[in-house]
Write a structure and sequence with these properties.
This protein is mostly helical and about 575 residues long. Helix content is about 65%, strand content about 5%. It is built from 23 helices and 5 strands. Helix 9 runs parallel beside helix 23, helix 16 crosses helix 17 and helix 16 runs antiparallel to helix 20. It starts with about 25 loop residues before the first helix and ends with a helix. The N terminus is likely disordered. The structure holds zinc ion. Zinc ion (ZN) binds next to helix 13 and helix 15. The site of zinc ion has 4 residues, from helix 13 and helix 15.
Length: about 575
């Protein structure tokens, strides 16, 4: 799969083609050449920046491929071993050597002669250098090893359902069934598996927490939250703004969701709404099953993207041709969906667990949006500029879920299209409280004294459920609810969650723009994606036709705008 001989993969200029990043002596030699190189003028400094970047791309791709292989089969020892070698041996060396290289770039006299196009990169390098501590290199490797353990635990999770063992993503389809006992049985089968692993995951989180606290201390931060905000390079906002966003979502989105659920409950004729009643169609229609297998899913997505925009359709076709998609759910496959960039061959790769639902179509549109962002941004001169920071990256994906809505004829017909549109908008608004509570939980867990133990974490999650997702009847099954904080992002990507809320608000804004003038909205969307990460966030949002704003007023406006377009 995905080899360098494709015409779209530009040749390297500095790193030899025959290489193996796990050969750490070779890698150290390449770094030495870069360390030793004189930088008398801006031209040589630019060359150093580009060569360092090429090396970063080679390392990044090796890691990405190893990650894909590991998550494609979490029981594959060889794949796990290679990934472990990369995070335990290669990345620590890269962290140390790359720190020296970044300092060399920043300290070089000609840095003052570089053009303004480099200012965003230099700001990021300065942030990295300020955060670096030699004693954190081993701790980062330890953290990565713990994250790998999370992948293995969650990848091995299988439920027993009606005499069949199945990976958890497959159970989701049963939660959409109109037969309530079927939904309940599927929900309980899944929850039981999660409960069985809850103790192991509690212990794992304790270990991760301890490592993270030490990392933050070593770097001189008062707590891990402050460290992580710096590490994520959140230049444009801080903890205060995100806490205010939680409040705004509580005030303006939660009441809408509660009212919407209440209508569903009435339509379903239920006394109370239980957690297995949230994915079923309130009007009692059978679940949408838009495709039968991964081939049909890819065919439908290809037609959808082509219908929306010729160029984007062409990108997706290229991904299929080059086998850059792994779509169907399988045993032992990690239960996640992601797009990862292969920085060396300059191509994106999509991974997901399709089982035939409308939600799978949304996931592929989402990851497709990420992939298009990379295709459009890859002409940028350096890796750091080819893809935006998360806050906008999730606009590339979430806005695509919405922009594609009028073009889903390959999957749905007639009334189904209206139904899918309603479902999508409902899901978009419902997601906001979940994101806020996941973020609020992490603010709390990393800044609370004394350090919260497993019991305290369960109590906090229960409290947040009441605050952000009220109106669901959890009687007799609170034990399942209270471990709801135990999922992928909280373990492996701490604090990477509020970006989705920021991006959702902007994406809904883009969708509202598209209702006025679709061609102009899609054009602006693509223009913004093509900027990659080369500009500060506010400029990229503006290029997409929406402000970089997530204060209370912005939240209220967008919720009112979207609710007004919904049919009920
Ligand atoms: Zn995404």
């Amino acid at each position: 799969m995905h080899t360098r001989d494709d015409a779209t993969a530009p040749a390297r200029r500095f790193i030899p083609d025959a290489l193996e990043v796990t050969d750490t002596e070779w890698l150290a030699r390449v770094y030495r050449r870069l360390h030793d190189r004189p930088v008398p003028d801006a031209e040589e400094l630019e060359r150093l920046i580009l060569d360092r970047d090429e090396l970063e791309g080679v390392v990044q791709e090796a890691k990405a491929r190893a990650y894909v292989a590991m998550t494609a089969d979490t029981a594959n020892e060889e794949a796990a071993g290679r990934y472990r070698t990369i995070v335990q041996e290669v990345l620590p060396l890269v962290e140390r050597e790359d720190f020296r290289l970044k300092r060399k770039i920043l300290d070089a006299d000609p840095v003052h002669d570089l053009g303004p196009e480099w200012s965003v990169l230099l700001r990021e390098l300065r942030a990295d250098v300020a955060l670096y501590r030699e004693e954190n290199v081993a701790l980062h490797a330890e953290e990565a090893e713990l994250a790998q353990r999370y992948e293995q635990i969650s990848g091995a999770q299988e439920a027993e359902f009606r005499g069949e063992r199945m990976p958890l993503p497959r159970l989701y389809a049963f939660l959409e069934e109109t037969d309530r006992p079927t939904r309940e049985e599927a929900w309980r089968a899944r929850s039981e598996v999660l409960l069985e692993d809850a103790g192991a995951l509690d212990a794992l989180f304790d270990e991760m927490f301890a490592v993270r606290v030490r990392i933050a201390e070593n770097a001189g931060y008062p707590d891990y939250r402050a460290y992580r905000f710096a590490e994520l390079k959140r230049f444009d906002y801080g903890p205060e703004e995100t806490l205010a966003l939680h409040d705004a979502i509580e005030r303006h989105v939660v009441p809408w969701v509660v009212a919407d659920q209440e209508r569903s409950r009435e339509m379903l004729g239920l006394e109370t709404l239980r957690p297995w009643d949230l994915a079923v169609d309130p009007a009692g229609r059978p679940p949408l099953r838009p495709f039968a297998d991964a081939g049909e899913l890819a065919d439908g997505a290809a037609r959808t993207f082509r219908h929306l925009d010729d160029e984007l359709g062409g990108f997706f076709d290229a991904m299929r041709r080059r086998q850059l998609l792994d779509l169907e759910s399988r045993a032992r496959k990690a239960p996640t969906g992601y797009m990862v960039t292969l920085a060396d061959i300059k191509a994106p790769f999509i991974f997901m667990n399709a089982v035939g639902t409308a939600r799978d179509v949304r996931t592929l549109l989402h990851e497709g949006g990420h992939a298009f962002n990379y295709f459009l941004g890859r002409a940028q001169p350096v890796h750091a500029y080819r893809f935006p920071k998360i806050e906008f990256a999730e606009v590339g994906s979430m806005a695509m879920e919405l922009l594609a809505l009028p073009h889903l004829g390959a999957f749905y017909e007639g009334d189904e299209l209206d139904r899918v549109r309603e479902d999508q908008l409902r899901a978009a608004l419902r997601l906001l409280p979940s994101l806020a509570m996941t973020d609020a939980f992490q603010h709390w867990v990393y800044t609370t004294d004394p350090v919260p133990d497993a019991e305290a974490r369960r109590m906090k999650w229960a409290e947040l459920e009441e605050r952000f997702r009220p109106g669901i009847d959890w009687s007799d099954i609170r034990r399942y609810r209270d471990i709801g904080w135990q999922f992928f992002h909280i373990f492996n990507h701490p604090f990477y969650v509020i970006e989705y809320a920021i991006a959702q608000i902007a994406s809904l804004g883009i969708w509202l723009n598209a209702l006025e003038d679709e061609a102009a909205a899609v054009h602006a969307y693509k223009e913004a994606l093509a900027l990659g990460g080369s500009r500060p966030l506010p400029e990229i949002f503006e290029a997409a036709g929406v402000p970089f704003r997530f204060d209370e007023e912005a939240v209220r406006e967008v919720v009112e705008g979207v609710a007004g377009k919904m049919e009920r």
